Amino acid sequence: MSNTVEADDQQAGGPPTRPFAPFEWMIAGRYLRSRRRETFISVIAGFSFAGIMLGVATLIIVMAVMNGFRSELLGKILGINGHMLVQPVDTALTDYDAVAVRLEGVPDVVSAIPFVEGQALVSGPAGSLGALVRGVHESDLRRVPLISGNVRNGTLDGFDEGEGIAVGSRMAQQLGVTVGDSITIVSPNGNVTPMGVTPRVKAYPISAIFEIGMSEYDSTFVFMPLTEAQGYFNMDGRATGIEIYVVDPDKVGLMKSAIEEGAGRPAFITDWRQRNTTFFSALEVERNVMFIILTLIVLVAALNIISGLIMLVKDKGRDIAILRTMGATRGAVMRIFLITGASIGCVGTIAGFLLGLVVCLNIESIRQFISWLTSTQLFDPTLYFLSKLPADIDSGETVMVLVMALVLSLLATLYPAWRAARLDPVEALRYE
Asked: What positions does the domain ABC3 transporter permease C-terminal occupy (predicted)?
C-alpha cells in the first residue's frame, strides 16, 4: 500500500519527504488534541483508548488469575496426594517399607510414603461430616511440607507414639473442637459378628490442627499414625499404597518404567495427570474460552479507532488538501494518520499493561476491600477451593497480549490512513 502511495507521489512530481519527519508527528499530535469543533471525534478517540486499556488490563488480570488458580490448585493437590501412586496387584502390600526404600533409590524421586487410607464418618460437639482418614508414619508426615509446615495449633511431636490425630482447620471449626478435644471416628467396615458386620467406633484426641489453604482438603483429611490406622481399618501389616514425590511433576510419564522396575513387585502405577485429568482439562478449556471472549474487547476498541479516524479524515479533508498543495506527499499524509491511530493503540496498551500489573500485584487486597465495601464474601473458599485469590503473571502470555493489542491497533489505522492519502486535493477544495 505504501509503495503505491509513494509511486503516485513520484508520478505527481511531489518532493520527497523523510518518513516520520517532525512535522508529521506535530500534525498527528494536534489531531489528537481536541478543539471545540472536534469534541465528538476526541470523545471517540477517548473511548477507543479506554476500550484498549481496559481490554488489555482485563486480559492480563484474568489470565494471571487463571494461571494462579492452576498453579495453586496443582500445588495443593500434588502437595498432599503425591505425584505418582503405587498400588499392589495380586498380593497385599505387606513389604511396603522395603518397596519404599527401593523407590527412593530411583533417580529424581524425592520421597516414597506408604499409607493406609479409608473413608469414615467423624463427629464432634457441633456436628458430623464425612472424612478421608489416612495413616502415615510421623517421619513421612514431616516430609510433606504442605502439612508439617502449616500446623496452626498443636504439634506433630510424638505422633507415632500416641493415639492423637491431625485434622484440618475447617473440619475442626465445623466439628467445634480444638487441640486436646476428642472426635469420634465411625467406619462401616468394622468387626464381623454372627449378627453381621458392626461399624467400628473409636474416639481420638486431636494433637494437631493444620491449614493447607484449600477448603476441600482442610475439611476432609484426617491423619493418624500408620499402625493405628492399620488396626482401625483391619489392615494389620498391610498398606493401601505408596505415594511418590518426584523432582519434576511434568516428567512423571518418563519415569513410569523406572518406578515399575524400582518397585520390584507387581504394581499398578498411576500419576497425577490420570487422577485429575477432568479437573485440569476443564480449567484449561475455561482459560482458553476466557482469552477468546476478552480478546473481543480489544477488537471492539480497535474498531472504534477505525470509526474515529474515518470521521477525522472526513473532518480534515480541507486540511489534507492544503497540506498536499504545500508539498506534503501522499505517504506523509498516510503516516500522519497512522501515527494518530497507532498512538491511541500504543498508549492504551501501555496503560492497560500498567493497570493490569498493579491489579495483579494487589489483587488480594483489592478483593478484601471490595468485600468490606459491599459487605459480601466476594471469593467464597467453599466454592473456589482456595482461601485467597491467586494471581500468577506469565511473562510469555503477557507479551502475547501486548503484541496482539498493538497489531490490532495498527491494522485498524491502515484503512483510514490509506483513505486520507488517496484524497484528491482538487475535490476537497472545490466547495470550500
From this structure: 291-425
Burial of 281 (0-12, 13-18, 19+ CB in 10 A): exposed
Query: What mean pLDDT is reported for the chain?
Result: 81
> How many helices (H) and strands (E) in the chain?
18, 10
Contact indicator for 346, 406 with CB cutoff of 8 Å: yes
Q: Does this model's pTM top 0.70?
A: no
Spatial distance between the Cα atoms of 344 and 56, rounded to a whole number of angstroms: 13
Rg of the chain over Cα atoms, rounded to whole angstroms, equals: 33
What are the start-end ranges of the H helices in 179-316?
215-218, 226-232, 252-263, 272-275, 277-315
> H helices within 149-276, ranges in order?
169-175, 215-218, 226-232, 252-263, 272-275
Amino acid letter, residue 144: V
Interior/surface letters 100-110, b for 16+ CB within 10 angstroms, e for the rest: bebbbebeebe
Query: For residue range 370-415, what is the model confidence (pLDDT) as tens digits?
Result: 878 877 776 665 555 556 777 888 888 888 888 888 888 888 888 8
Residue of 315, 274, 232 whose CA lies nearest to 87: 274
Measure the CA angle with vertex 7, ends 5 and 9; round to 5°. 70
Query: What CA–CA distances, in Å, run from 284 to 16, 63, 199, 279, 300?
Result: 53, 11, 42, 9, 25
Q: Are residues 99 and 265 in contact, defined by beta-carbon separation less than 8 angstroms?
A: yes
Q: How buried is 114 (Cβ within 10 angstroms: 0-12 exposed, 13-18 middle, 19+ buried)?
A: buried
Residue 219: closest CA among 169, 183, 177, 146: 169
HSE-CB for 292 with a 13 A CA cutoff: 6
Q: Is the dihedral of CA 130, 117, 85, 269 positive or negative?
A: negative
Is the Cα torsion angle 402, 282, 150, 114 positive or negative in sign?
Answer: negative
In this structure, are residues 179 and 154 in contact, taking their beta carbons and an 8 Å threshold?
yes
What does the alpha-carbon distance between residue 252 and residue 270 come to, in Å, rounded to a whole number?
9
Distance CA 121, CA 118 (A): 10
Residue 182 CA to its chain's centroid (Å): 39
Asked if the model's pLDDT at residue 5 lies above 50, the reply is no
Q: What is the DSSP letter of 16?
A: P
